[in-house]
Amino acid sequence: MKTSAQGFTGLHMLVATSTFFAVVIAVNVTMAFYASSSWSGLVVENTYVASQEFNRKAAAMKAMAASGVAGDLSIRGHQIRYDIHDKSGAPAAVDDVVLNFKRPVGDHEDFHLTLRKTAEGRFEADHNLAEGDWIVEAISRNDGLVVMHEAKRIDTKELDR
């Protein structure tokens, strides 16, 4: 009776190498799929135009910061409230407030709300906000001119619901 102990053969090497590269390729394809489907990659429409506007926007933001006007966003259940005040704490003179809700990744759930003025410096809206992280951009205007433009990142798990 003849027994054969071949050990590690060329066929074993071929299977091991093929399996290794199959795993590497499968991981790369999976990562590429998730990367392309989860983020649009779009930050600005035209980078050249955005770079030309940077100094103008930076000067406007410095002027807003120096004015002392600040806003406070509060969300309780479906009630969204934005209070805006000057440096002394008195309500700021603002005609309208728009809130843009954006997801940090992807844009399929983004929306904007025009808040109704309920008192001087107080604006409210009713809207159910999906759970998770949001970037809330607040734009406050008086006579068509931007008084305050700010963005805050919020997590709905940290809000009083």
TrEMBL record:
Q: Which InterPro entries does the UniProt record give?
A: FixH, FixH_proteobacterial
Keyword terms, alphabetized: Membrane, Transmembrane, Transmembrane helix
Pfam families according to UniProt = FixH (PF05751)
- Top-rank taxon, per record: Bacteria
**Where are the membrane-spanning stretches?**
12-35
UniProt name for this protein: Nitrogen fixation protein FixH
Q: What is the lineage of its organism?
A: Bacteria, Pseudomonadati, Pseudomonadota, Alphaproteobacteria, Hyphomicrobiales
